[in-house]
């Protein structure tokens, strides 16, 4: 009897093992089938794309607010029921270009993907490195892969409804710059202009390239930055002609006024924290959602000083003497538009809190909306300098410079040399 029982148990175990092996073989077969080029869900991005990973679910046709555990949009559609957003589903028509998918850009792309954005166009030419693992998003097993492709693979799994187009190139070379401009102009889901460009790059040259492209195309964009000491950051909304462009005034930064040229020296390694990057990414995507879905108040500038948990907000007017020719054209267009509008919606915008320079303790280069623009000669600098004497203690030694003019002048020189280089390259062609 005992022997028979043992035999039966052994037989059952064998059957289980066989069934498991069969199941595995079937799964592998399914995976291979799904990886074939004509499988559904694989028509994403542009034609140069390699094979796409298998999405975990079918695409969803219409967003539903139904509260069931299997609905990936129930919590987002709840924003509508709660009266925060009027028409959340509009997000599916929107296209956002993200330039730079590093510590900030990758998190931005993930947030937008989870929010169900219609389409993302990702630009980056870097590879994932193990040294990036102190940040969010990328996994160690992705080291060596191009960032945009690694990002696409992850994002398609997170939300297969989002169309993802990737470009593994540097936007600051002449040919790539042209493609970049063309994608801004025609990259949307309806082959028209994208809804927003988000700059999440870590260098001045790329920011200038985004600025030039957006001024040229009259494209609204948002800039973001995290300081090289990892304890401050900012986001900035830029509407050509209406707000200061990136070339109008020296970059607005919180706390650390470090000349970028000194940061890329041999042996000088920037610090980074997942916290600061995630905070900045969160601000950027929140501002993006408010802008795209038309709720709340879109911020023109939000700074973040992590050491003091200080979040300054500001608006900056464009500089009528901006170096960027397209910026001047957009300024004239904006002025004409404003003059022709009988009801000027701008006036109805809530007034920003005035900047109190005495309380400006962290060396923030900001300009009050009522004043003209910040320039290296601007009397505003003295206002900032005055505020510096109350500098936050730990930041004082390393980050706050009493005299901001040299850094601003250096920024201006750098900007000019980049523009000269781009013009020279274009002329060579
Ligand atoms: Zn400008």
TrEMBL record:
InterPro entries assigned: D-isomer_DH_CS1, ThiF/MoeB/HesA, ThiF_NAD_FAD-bd, Ubiquitin-activating_enz
GO MF terms, alphabetically ordered: ATP binding; metal ion binding; ubiquitin conjugating enzyme binding; UFM1 activating enzyme activity
Transmembrane segments: none
Domain THIF-type NAD/FAD binding fold: residue ranges: 73-312
Annotated keywords: ATP-binding, Metal-binding, Nucleotide-binding, Ubl conjugation pathway, Zinc
Gene3D superfamilies in UniProt: NAD(P)-binding Rossmann-like Domain
GO process terms (BP): protein ufmylation; response to endoplasmic reticulum stress
CDD domains from the UniProt entry: ThiF_MoeB_HesA_family
GO CC, alphabetical: cytosol
Subunit: Interacts with ufc-1.
Family: Belongs to the ubiquitin-activating E1 family. UBA5 subfamily.
Protein role: E1-like enzyme which activates ufm-1. Required for interaction between ufm-1 and ufc-1.
The protein's name in its UniProt record: Ubiquitin-like modifier-activating enzyme 5
């Amino acid at each position: 009897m005992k022997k028979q029982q043992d035999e039966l148990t052994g037989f059952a175990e064998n059957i289980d093992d066989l069934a498991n092996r069969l199941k595995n073989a079937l799964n592998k077969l399914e995976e291979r089938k799904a990886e074939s080029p004509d499988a559904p869900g694989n028509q994403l991005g542009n034609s140069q794309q390699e094979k796409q990973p298998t999405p975990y679910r079918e695409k969803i046709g219409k967003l539903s607010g139904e509260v069931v555990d299997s609905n990936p949009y129930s919590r987002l559609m709840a924003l509508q029921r709660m009266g925060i957003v009027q028409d959340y589903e509009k997000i599916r028509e929107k296209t956002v270009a993200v330039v730079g998918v590093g510590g900030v850009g990758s998190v931005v792309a993930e947030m937008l993907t989870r929010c169900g954005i219609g389409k993302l166009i990702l630009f980056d030419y870097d590879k994932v490195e193990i040294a990036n693992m102190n940040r969010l998003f990328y996994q160690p097993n992705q080291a060596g892969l191009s960032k945009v492709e690694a990002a696409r693979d992850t994002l398609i799994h997170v939300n297969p409804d989002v169309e993802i187009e990737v470009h593994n190139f540097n936007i600051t070379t002449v040919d790539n710059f042209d493609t970049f401009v063309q994608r801004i102009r025609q990259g949307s889901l309806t082959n028209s202009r994208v809804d927003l460009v988000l700059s999440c790059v870590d260098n001045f040259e790329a920011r200038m390239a985004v600025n030039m492209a957006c001024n040229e195309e009259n494209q609204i964009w948002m800039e973001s930055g995290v300081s090289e000491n990892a304890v401050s950051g900012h986001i900035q909304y830029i509407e050509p002609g209406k707000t200061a462009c990136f070339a109008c005034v020296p970059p607005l930064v919180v706390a650390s006024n470090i000349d970028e040229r000194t940061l890329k020296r041999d042996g000088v390694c920037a610090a980074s924290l997942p916290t600061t990057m995630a905070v900045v990414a969160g601000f950027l995507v929140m501002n993006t959602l408010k802008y795209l879905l038309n709720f709340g108040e879109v911020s023109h500038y939000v700074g973040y000083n992590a050491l003091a948990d200080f979040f300054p907000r500001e608006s900056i007017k464009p500089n009528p003497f901006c170096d960027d020719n397209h910026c001047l054209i957009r300024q004239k267009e904006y002025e004409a538009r404003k003059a022709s509008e009988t009801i000027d919606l701008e006036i109805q915008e809530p007034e920003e809190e005035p900047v109190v320079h005495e309380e400006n303790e962290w060396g923030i280069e900001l300009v009050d909306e009522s004043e003209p623009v910040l320039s290296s000669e601007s009397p505003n600098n003295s206002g900032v300098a005055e505020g510096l004497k109350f500098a936050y203690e730990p930041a004082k030694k390393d980050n706050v410079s009493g005299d901001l003019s040299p850094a601003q002048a250096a920024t201006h020189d750098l900007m000019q040399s980049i523009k000269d280089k781009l013009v020279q390259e274009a002329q060579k062609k």
